[in-house]
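Hi everyone, sorry if this is the wrong subforum. Our group has a chain we'd like a structural model of before ordering constructs, and none of us has done structure prediction before. Sequence below.
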Amino acid sequence: MHSTPKKYNCIIVEDEPIAAEILESFVSRDEELNLVGKCADAVHASNLLSIHDVDLMFLDLHLPVVKGFDFLRKLKNPPFVIVTTAYHQYAVEGYELDIADYLMKPIPYDRFLTAIGKFKHLIQAEDALLELADRDYIYISSGKKQVKIILHDIFFIESLREYINIHTKSETFTFKMPISKIEASLNSKIFTRIHKSYIVSRSKIEIKSANMVQVNGKKLPIGRTYKPSLEL
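Answer:
Right subforum, don't worry. Here is the predicted structure as tokens:
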């Protein structure tokens, strides 16, 4: 009995029909990739992302009206992104965004395969992080090594742009990942998001008022949208 390969939903955002067709033919050769939509601009891409649960987006940077990176910055929970471009100079600008890889047009098939390999490695690492959520510790990848963090030792987690700081009893760990990614892997009975930049351990809250909580002597603000979750 063969196990069904895992399917990753992807979309192609590309305004050149030929380039879009080439990508589509590459995607169709991989049975783990499932193309749920193709479009030529950011407006339609936003629409596709709201309808489908997308794991991977192929994004051309030279889109009409809204450019690729500007579009990406506005996305709340972006999928993994493989950028396609005819220009070299964009790699640096995208460094702060979570880009899995850059493909230079015209895209050779073997280079496409390398990019997909990177994407699968990243998403599988993320899935592994989520599976660990029920235990009393988590492992987080930092470069090539895995760092073990005991959940009970965490006071709070703060977000600083594309990094998070996990403040624990012994030290502060810094990782390059969005706070939403670690939030998804934590048990909400134990941890709660109190602000777009903060997640706290419920048992470590020392003082709570309408607009702030104190954890380990540090006062942290409560964001308006997160107030209801603190009542639980």
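For your construct planning: The mean pLDDT is 87. Residues 8-131 form a domain with the Rossmann fold fold (CATH 3.40.50.2300).
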